[in-house]
Amino acid sequence: MRIQVSHETIYRYGQPARGVIQTLRLTPRNHEGQYVVDWRIDVSENCQVDQHEDAFGNVTHVFDCDGPVSELRILAEGEVETQDLNGVVRGMIERFPPSLYLRETALTHADPAICDFAREAQVAAQAAGEGSPLAVLHRLLERIHDTVEYDEKSPTTSATTAAEAFALRRGVCQDFTHIFIAAARSLAIPARYIGGHFFRADGAVLQEAAHAWAEAFVPDLGWVAFDAANCICATDAHVRVAVGLDYLGAAPTRGARYGGGEEALDVTVRVSCPFGASQSQSQSQS
User: Fold this and answer.
1) How do residues 142-179 score in pLDDT, each as one tens digit?
2) Which terminus of the chain, N or C, has fewer Cβ atoms within 10 Å?
3) Per the structure, how many domains does the chain have?
């Protein structure tokens, strides 16, 4: 599938900031099943934007600009060719062994409720004669989707933990992903956070944010992508951009500013397929 993405972030400051520093993780990489046809980063301020790689192999762009800055616009856009590999992800840059992704973070802490929930999924899979790690992960995917309500008006934020979102039984794709990761790690299955984009089969091009899903490591198969918000493994509708232990490690933008007073953030994402979709999804949430 040929997918076009436009991801615009606008920061507006109540008072002109004296300076701004930003790290961007907005650029996808090539791997098996994903080829970046064209991509560009544009920053509204006149500054030097340097490209690097972080510890996880993500493409990062870093810049700092002197003020006064009243409004900062960051645009990432391009075109990516994708193939459906049934959720299996190969050919990425892997700097760490899978065991690193058993490491708990504040956002992915598995409290007793999540641990019990994960064990119940494991027991249910085993009772059905499907006790392999892959079968357990599929059962976990289904149970999370059935238990947690997708809510675009959810009170959760980027700082909401997996335990908090699970207690609410509602959230957005980031919350679904953190819950899945916390539950998988509690079963000693390595799991990691993926930030990217999702082409919606319902034709909704304009989206309020980027998408998120998880990858879990399955012996003899490798990394497999699970989109709990949509209850599917990743397909050619997914554009993989960044990986981390949790949202903070894969956040599209992170930075700091000097002064500026109150800050307002506006994100606009457009994901389209100008040549028509080649697959269908049972769900279509962003």
Assistant:
1) 999 999 999 988 889 999 999 999 999 999 999 999 99
2) N
3) 2
109: containing domain = 84-248
242-277 burial by CB neighbour count: b if 16+ within 10 A, else e? bbbbbbebbbbbebebeebeeeeeeeebebbbeeeb
Give residue-wise pLDDT tens across range 91-149: 998 999 999 999 999 999 999 999 999 999 999 999 988 889 999 999 999 999 999 99
> Could you tell me what percent of the chain has a pLDDT over 90?
86
Longest dimension (CA), the chain: 64
CATH number reported for the structural domain that contains residue 240 in this entry: 3.10.620.30
- What global pTM score does this model have? 0.94
User: What's residue 276's pLDDT?
Assistant: 64
Q: Is residue 278 part of a domain?
A: no
